[in-house]
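Standup notes
- DV: blocked on the single-chain target, sequence here:
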Amino acid sequence: MFPRYRILFAVFLFALSVMPALADIDSASATLTCNAYSFSVSASGLSAGGSYVIDYTLDSSPNSGGFPITGSIPFTATSNIFNGTVTGSFPALSGSYSFSGIASMPGTKGGLTTIMVSPISLTCGTPPPPPCSGQASISSGFNGTPINAGEWIWLNANFTAKGIPSTGATITFTGSTVTAEGNATLLSAAAPNAQITFSPTATCSTTTFNTMTNTWMTTVPVKGDDEIFLTGLAVPVPSTGVPGGIKVGWIGTFSSNGVKGITIDWKWSAAVYSQFSSDYNALGVKAGHQTACGHSNGDHAGTPEGINNNNHPWKDYVLGGARGGGGSNWTGSWSGTEQVNPTASCPLK
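- DV (later): unblocked, structure below
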């Protein structure tokens, strides 16, 4: 009888070994821009509770400094199917490129799966300025409080607009950078782009961050607000820290995208946090001073109203420094205001 038990045990082990091999990647796709990608994958034949890894590689031709891009998606199956998406960025491309990719799930029956990329080819470079555009620049100083390594600087800007037609309009802010004047090694960062839609149907203001296009997408009522969130970026303080008293310049390009008669008044600020996040959608940024959906408090536009993974409000971690004094000064104190008339560059017809 003993040999029979050994045979049954061996069959049992063999069955366990082949169960994961039923798994396979069903589809894999990737969308690319000139500086970002989104990879989506579907798999089936999984064993619930089993541990799996999907590896992927995206490549460009000609090869660029940011390619090939390699990554992995580890997961524990909760059913016999899996769907996942990851996003990422890479140094901006310049020139014409074609893309390809492969994915695999080690330890399963499947081999290499071709990633369906879109677009297959792409031309990147400095785009022409949008219609009806004007450059803006504001310099302002940080206060005297040194900012320590490991802390975060929340740089945020807001604006008001006049001349928005009753049918609505879209304002963009692109090519935006923040730099410590005279010593860029202390602070130098590119801010996300911004797209603000004045909508005739909006009754309150919202903002979300599009990781694929690196753009803050904000929607506000046509009537606007006395402070509309423009854009913001979270900068981790390096090991050298940032001294107090530095002067910082913020520059970018506004556009009314062909709509004439619009003027913009904008300003910026900066606050320091002991804990913060570069996942901008986790910050719960307040889109408007008076019109923000779900926030009837008096906090300024740009205030991080969200909570962290421990259910603590980000506002609990504000410190003095940059242009803020801590306490309830969650955005920092505003710079001077600059008026921009992007419609001055509109075509005559």
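- Follow-up: The mean pLDDT is 90.
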